[in-house]
Each structure stands twice: as C-alpha cells, then as structure tokens.
C-alpha cells in the first residue's frame, strides 16, 4: 500500500490527479493505436507531471527518451576511438525517443564511449565522466553500445556501468542543499547488479570526498547490505545518505516483506526526502503495475541526518567519494525540487510503463539486427532443443510450448550488430538486458558487456550456410575455424577435430548447424 508523504498541500494532489488522467489517456491511445508512438502526449512525461504537481525537475537525464513533452535537444554525447571526434545524440522528434541510428552511423567501424549526459531541465546540470575522489581513481566513460534496448518500439541504448565508470556534476543549479526537500527516481535493472559500493543516482558531495553523515541523498540499487538484517537476496532500493545505505531510520530493513526486486529486467527506483525528519523509498516493475513503498518514516537516528546536509552535486554510478566498484544499468532519472506527491509518483510510474521497456521489436525469426530469435539444434537427436542460458552458462535444453516462462525467456535472444564487426552478429539475452552470449576458454556463457575489445570479439559470431547443408552455422569472430556447437548439452566454439572432446568430428557438421526460428518469448 502506498503511504502518503507528510506536508502535502491538497492543491498539489489535484494537479497530480490531472496528470494521472493525462497519462491514462496516453495509455488508452497506445492500446488503441496500431504501433508505438513517436512521442507521448505533451504534458504527460515525467517532468511535466512533476511540474504540474508543484515539484519541478531540477535534473532530467536519459539516454533513451525525452522527459518533457516539449524537449527537443540532445540526450547524450559520444566520442569515438578512431579519431576522438564527438557527436551529440538527439531525438527522432521533440518529446520522443533517441536517434540511436545516428550513434550507430557515427560509431560504425570503431567504438564509442559516452562522455556526457545532458540535463533536459532548464538547469543544465549535465553529467560528465567523474574525476578522482577520496575512494577511487578517475573514472572512464561507459561504452555507448553496451546496453541496447527497445523503448517505445524503437531500438535505443541505455547506460551500462561497470566498475571504474561513473558520471558527475559538482557545480549544479537548483539541487537541494542543507536540508532542503527533494525527490528522485531512476529506471535501472535488477539483472546487472553487485554488492560493491555504490551504484547511486542523486545528491552528493561537491568535492568527490566523504564529508560526513547526511551529506548525500541518493538512490542506491544493488545487493550490498550495509546494515543487517536485510531480507531476501535483493537487489534493494536503498538511500545512500553517506556512511550507510539505509532501508529505514535504523539503517537495517524494518520491512520483512522487502526481499528486493529480484532479477526484474527493468526497475523503477524512487527516493524522496524532506531533508528534516522524513524519507521514503519505493520501487516498481518498470514494465507493468504500480509502485510499492518499502519505507516511509523518520530520518536515520544516528547524528547528522536530521536535518540533512546535502551539498547539491549529482552523481551517477558511484558513491559520493567516487567509490566505484559497483555495476548497474541506467535508462532515465530525474531529481525534483520539493517532495512529489504520491499521486504524481503514480502518474510517472504509469508513464514509464507506457514506454514498453524491453518490448518486442516487431521483427522475429531472422538474423536482422533487432530481431528476436531462438536457435534450434538440427542434429537428429535434439531437434526440440534450443540454445539457452542457465546459471550464466550456455547450454542446450529442450523447450516446448509447455515450458516455463523463465525457460522460454532463457532460450530467446535479440540479434545485434556484431560487437566486433558490423558484418557479423551478437546475441543479447532477452531477459538480461546488456548480457550477451560469449565464449571463454571455448565454453559459452551469458555475461554483461564490459566494452573491452576481448569481450567484443568473444561475443561476435559470423553467420554462414549450415555446414550440414541445412540451417546456419556461426563462426567465432576471433577463432574463425571454430563454430558454435552443442556437445553433451553444453555449448562451445569447436573445431572439426582436435584434442578436446567437444572438437570430435562425429556429427560435427550437424552439431554446428542451427535453425534460426521464431522466439519462444516475444
């Protein structure tokens, strides 16, 4: 049940309720239409909703889409490795979705990193690659193509953070300081997390150092349990208020039902704090449903947190002192002036759901980039068996219409342009955004893309006519005489004859020939 934040004026509730109606109208239009819209109705995007509720955005960051119905500027900047040139990536139309094709064209034949994420608000609180801090060396930019995703029916990119990556702005305008009230949310992923400090988005110190209790006010998302007990396995939405990841005023969770979001591919994480005596945490499935409040109560009881002492910098991907051992995914996020109403939060969640994060691309059963597929074995023993991931390993498994939703998702892949070569392909996991099928020591695994040349090569496969005379065979990009093969229900890149059992010539041509079929999970 959602709990109402304190000190909310009735007029703000009425304004937010009107925003809810606007979002509902947008959702109805989506359901009745024949395809994804280029842009949502003006006035229904997150920062429009919050402005109508009297708590305007002072920061609005997204690589995926506009967060104001009228916004038509750039979303982020990329820099390519080949010549150091930079390019701003904008929108297909005002209020719409990212022009990812512009990135693809600019970065073709080389690699790009994200160097700046633009603030869509009038405050211009842009995020650049974070410098050195009290707990970490200077960060590097995230690879621009590491997290392809469908949003609004368009192929776009999110931001995938690996350890040593982060973004920051230490000279902001309008962000809460010294106990002022604020709210914030981000859309992230429960499939790309760890227990290292600290995957944060929000208010931080202006000097990249830990300056004491209450000097931060940021959303944290991960599996690090700072104060025991934490319930379940996480990941949890927590408040990084400096010197602790808080699930309640006591630090540890007071909510036994908050076991974390689990591996949801898309998560809405939300924090609001009046800066004096109250903060609240919420989360939701960014693909469906509403928000759940996991905590709403007093500030931490330890000294320094009531009132808060925020400094007003903005951090993304690290802790306030640049503790940068965490991993995480970021698609969009905003910060507000003042505490949004619960009605406004609900309207924003409805808008996020309407985006259709991770939705089907509309293309299936081909090797065209963006198409969803399943790969079926053609060997006579195994014609109901498919390439899937299980416990991070690539295996061959029987999949039928009666298989569980999890099994069918695990056996579904999204075709992407080859991470190492545009003339080849890579296979992104359908239910683990940003994770790709790659080989390591000749075995196949599902792993998150880290941007390295090694990973790119290991995750790239070049299609050929099936070696058995049927289907398609996939040569390893960096071991071109080895092909994707099933052997004893495991997956390898295998040569035709060799010292390892999986290189056996017996049925090799059949085992490396695959039927590219319609996906089990659209």
From TrEMBL:
Cystine crosslinks: 47-57, 107-112, 197-198, 424-462
Keywords per UniProt: Disulfide bond, Glycoprotein, Glycosidase, Hydrolase, Signal
Keyword Hydrolase among record annotations: yes
Gene Ontology BP annotations: arabinan metabolic process; L-arabinose metabolic process; pectin catabolic process
Alpha-L-arabinofuranosidase B arabinose-binding domain residues: 375-516
Domain Alpha-L-arabinofuranosidase B catalytic per the UniProt entry, residue ranges: 46-357
Gene3D superfamilies: 2.60.120.200, 2.80.10.50
SUPFAM superfamilies on file: AbfB domain (SSF110221), Concanavalin A-like lectins/glucanases (SSF49899)
GO MF assignments: alpha-L-arabinofuranosidase activity
InterPro entries assigned: A-L-arabinofuranosidase_B_cat, ABFB, AbfB_ABD, AbfB_ABD_sf, ConA-like_dom_sf
Residue positions of the active site: 242 (nucleophile), 321 (proton donor)
Pfam families, per the entry: AbfB, ArabFuran-catal
Residues of the signal peptide: 1-41
Top-level taxonomic group: Bacteria
Protein family per UniProt: Belongs to the glycosyl hydrolase 54 family.
PANTHER family: ALPHA-L-ARABINOFURANOSIDASE B
Protein name as catalogued: Alpha-N-arabinofuranosidase
Organism: Streptomyces filipinensis
Gene: abfA
């Amino acid at each position: 049940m959602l709990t109402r934040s304190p000190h909310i004026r009735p007029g703000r509730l009425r304004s937010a309720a009107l925003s809810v109606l606007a979002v509902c109208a947008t959702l109805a239009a989506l359901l009745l239409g024949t395809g994804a819209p280029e842009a949502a109705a003006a006035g229904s995007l997150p920062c429009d909703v919050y402005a109508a509720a009297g708590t305007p955005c002072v920061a609005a960051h997204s690589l995926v889409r506009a967060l104001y119905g009228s916004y038509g500027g750039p979303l982020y900047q990329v820099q390519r490795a080949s010549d150091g040139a930079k390019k701003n990536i904008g929108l297909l139309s005002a209020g719409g979705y990212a022009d990812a094709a512009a990135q693809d064209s600019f970065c073709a034949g080389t690699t790009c990193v994200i160097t700046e994420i633009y603030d869509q608000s009038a405050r211009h609180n842009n995020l650049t690659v974070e410098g050195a801090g009290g707990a970490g060396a200077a960060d590097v930019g995230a690879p621009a193509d590491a997290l392809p995703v469908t949003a609004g029916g368009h192929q776009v990119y999110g931001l995938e953070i690996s350890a040593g990556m982060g973004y920051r702005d230490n000279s902001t305008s309008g962000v809460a300081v010294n106990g002022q009230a604020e709210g914030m949310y981000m859309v992230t992923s429960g499939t790309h997390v760890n227990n290292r400090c600290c995957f944060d988005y929000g208010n931080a110190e202006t000097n990249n150092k830990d300056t004491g209790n209450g000097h931060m006010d940021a959303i944290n998302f991960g599996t690090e349990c700072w104060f025991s007990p934490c319930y379940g396995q996480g990941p949890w939405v927590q408040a990084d208020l400096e010197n602790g990841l808080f699930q309640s005023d006591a630090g540890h969770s007071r909510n036994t039902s908050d076991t974390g979001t689990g591996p949801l591919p898309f998560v809405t994480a939300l924090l609001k704090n009046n800066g004096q005596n109250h903060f609240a945490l919420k989360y939701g499935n960014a693909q469906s449903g509403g928000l759940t409040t996991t905590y709403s109560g007093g500030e931490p009881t330890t000294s320094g947190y009531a009132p808060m002492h925020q400094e007003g910098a903005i951090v993304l991907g690290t802790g306030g002192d640049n503790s940068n051992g965490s991993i995480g995914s970021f698609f969009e996020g905003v910060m507000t002036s003042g505490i949004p109403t619960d009605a406004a939060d609900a309207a924003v969640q409805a808008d996020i759901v309407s985006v259709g994060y991770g939705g089907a691309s509309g293309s299936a059963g081909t090797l065209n980039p963006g198409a969803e597929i399943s790969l079926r074995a053609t060997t006579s023993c195994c014609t109901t068996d498919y390439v899937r991931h299980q416990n991070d390993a690539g295996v061959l498994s029987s999949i039928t219409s009666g298989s569980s939703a999890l099994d069918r998702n695990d056996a579904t892949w999204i075709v992407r342009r080859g991470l190492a070569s545009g003339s080849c392909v890579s296979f992104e996991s359908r239910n683990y955004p940003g994770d790709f099928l790659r080989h390591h020591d000749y075995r196949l695994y599902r792993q998150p893309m880290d941007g390295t040349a090694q990973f790119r090569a290991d995750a790239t496969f070049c299609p050929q006519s099936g070696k058995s005379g049927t289907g398609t065979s996939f040569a390893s990009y960096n071991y071109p005489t080895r092909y994707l093969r099933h052997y004893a229900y495991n997956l390898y890149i295998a040569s035709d004859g060799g010292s390892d059992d999986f290189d056996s010539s017996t049925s090799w041509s059949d085992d490396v020939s695959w039927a590219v079929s319609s996906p089990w999970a659209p």
